[in-house]
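Fold this sequence, please.
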Amino acid sequence: MLEIGAGLGSLTRLLAAAAGVVRAVEIDHRLMPVLREVLSSYANVELVQGDILALDPARLMNEPGYIAVANIPYYITSAIVRHLLECPKRPARLVLTMQKEVAERICAEPGDLSLLALSVQVFGQPSISAVIPAGAFYPVPGVDSATLRVDLHPQPYFTDEQREMFFSLIHMGFAQKRKTLRNNLAAGLHLSGEEAARYLVDADIDPQRRAQTLSLVEWKTLVNELKDLLGAKREQETPPA
C-alpha cells in the first residue's frame, strides 16, 4: 500500500496490520520522529519524507497492483488524484478521503458530468464507500467528508495517443458549459458551426447537446470521429525540437 499523508500514524498502523508492505509518505519533516517511534514495531512500514506531488509513485512502488490510500487536505485532492492516475505505474485502486461534494462530482453520471468526473472515470470506476460527518474530525471542518474508492480498469480505456486527444476534446467541450457541443467544438477546432454539427451527427450525437450529457462511450466515439483534426491540432501546438 502507498499511504499519502501519514500524519501521526493512526491509519498507518491499521494498514500495516492488513498489508504486506506499506510505504507511508509524509510531507511534514517535524512528524518523522513521532512516526518512527509510533511505527517502530512494524517491520513492513517504510517511511518517506517528502511531497507526493514531487515524488514519482512508480519509483516508490515496485509491487504491481498496489493500493493508494490518502486522507489529504481538500485543496490538493484533484492534484493528487491526477498525479496518481497519470503516472506510468498506476495503482489498482485508490481509497481517498475527500470533501463529500467533490466525491459526489467524481461519481456523477451523464447529465451531470464534469471535467473532474471524466478525468477519473476514464481510468477507473469510482464509488463512495462511506460518508464521514464533519464532527468526526478535529478541528471540525465546515463540510462533511466521504471515502471515495476508484477501481482502475484492468486495461486502459484509450491508447496513450487517444487519451491525449480525449483530454483535449473534453476541455473544448467544457470550455463554456452553457454552450452546445456544436458551438464549443466549432470554436476549439476552428470549424464553422455547420462543419462541427456534421462531425457530431456522424458520431450519432445531437449537435445541440451539452458536454455534461455525454457518456464516456460517446466521448470515445467522438474522439475516433475527430482523430485527424485533433492530431493536426496537436502537431500545430507542439513546439519544434
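The domain at 2-152 is CATH 3.40.50.150 (Rossmann fold). The two ends are 39 Å apart (CA to CA).
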